[in-house]
Amino acid sequence: MLIIEQEKRDWLLEQVNSTPHPNWTEIARQYEEVFGERRHRSTIRRWVLTLMRDEHILEHYGEEGLLRDEVGTRRAKLESAHFKKRVSDLVNKQLSHENIVDVIKMSAQALPPNEIRLRETQKTTSESPIVAVAPLTDLHIGEFVDTQQMGGLNAYDFEIFTNRLFGWTNQIIDLCSLRRSFVSVPILKVPMLGDMVSGEIHEELVRTNLDNVIMTMARGAYMVSQSLMMLASQFEEVHVDSVVGNHQRLRKEIYYKDKYVGWDYLFYQWVAAFCKNQPNIKFTIPKTFYQLIDVAGFNVLIHHGDAMRGSSMQQKVHSLRQALQPQGKAFQYMFMGHYHHVEEHDIGTGTALMCGCMKGTDEYAMLQGLASRATHVLTFFHPKYGLISRDTIYLENFDDERHGFNDYVPEIWAELIE
């Protein structure tokens, strides 16, 4: 329960109830003007969510419910303090990521499994099932894109991320259902291509991110886990193959040794831990910066894409092929993120596909002339013909549609894993 003066409590609730999408930066500015106290927008947001939760508990369970909730919160606080100290100590000492992963696996309480409700139609005319591939890339969770600075072109915060993720999830289900009118789609591949959190590799991100990166990682993983659980109810199998990006770095300088050491790798471990009770979701979380995955009998190379800079796409593809082919790792297709837009390149044997960005354009991209819409792709592979279809999902269409995820995350983040 949040202890705050009644006048401030009433004022905060009035601000947030007056609009479906509160501008936390503006509310924080007005709060300072009204009460003479400077508070960060993330603090204001947490206060408001806690106040709304307290009101809900009081309305449905009375004073006794508030007391039980306070007791549970204090217990969680004691447990989470020990957990966060262990994570922070390990990161600060730059110890093995395996030690941190052990902490995550021991601490995370998995989501309850969903029943598989696969609905294949009886109108199927093809004897060969196809495989759906829905990359999830460049979420940049925790970044704040100010719509006022963008002239209304784009906005991004945690609420918008969650709305877009929920819309993406339902769009995947709907588009696969359309395909099932004429062909079976039993398997979904979800390559996670990196830059899942905003990170702290740029000074302006450290200054403007919505929250600290540890909290952002846990909250974001909780949302993505719920998305995967929804998808798992609609497919016989869901394969989640992951690679890390560049925004996941623990330090500002670029490093190549132990490239996997960072926030993306831990994010994937959180997601896997939350989903561990769902039997039809399979995770692959390697330490290498790329993966070669099998999609309907075709080899698809997935990587973030930051390694492709400095020369043309064709030159980089040729170089990768020269390195991988002697090891029996020839690939026909390539999926990558990093570039924040959707684009195809013919690489002879197939397509190199840039898979978009959940965040959409930001202040940097706008000023650099790199503006693009918030998009993701959904592709379908046939066992004989390879990549046969690509759909583009325009994520800003979901900005004003309220999501159905559990997005309440108190300051005591260990309550997530109670």
Task: Write up this protein.
This protein has 418 residues and is of the alpha/beta class. It contains ten helices and eleven strands. Helices cover 39% and strands 14% of the residues. Strands 1, 2, 3, 4, 5, 6, 7, 8, 9, 10 and 11 form an eleven-stranded mixed beta sheet that branches. It is globular, with a radius of gyration of 22 Å. It starts with 5 loop residues before the first helix and ends in a 24-residue tail after the last strand. Mean pLDDT is 82; it is low at 75-84 and 410-418.
In short:
It is built from ten helices and eleven strands. The chain is α/β, with parallel strands linked by helices and 418 residues long.
Averaged pLDDT, please? 82
Q: Please tally the helical runs, counting DSSP H or I stretches of 4 or more residues.
A: 10
Give the DSSP E fraction (strand runs of 2 or more residues): 5-15%
**Major β-sheet annotation:** 11 strands, mixed
Q: What sequence of helices (H) and strands (E) makes up the elements?
A: HHHHEHEHHEHEEEHEEEHEE
Q: What is the structural class?
A: alpha/beta
C-alpha Rg, in Å? 22 Å
Provide the helix percentage. Answer: 25-40%
DSSP summary, beta strand count: 11
Low-confidence stretches: 75-84, 410-418
- Terminal CA distance reads 18 Å
- Assembly of the depicted chains: single chain
Tell me the overall shape.
globular
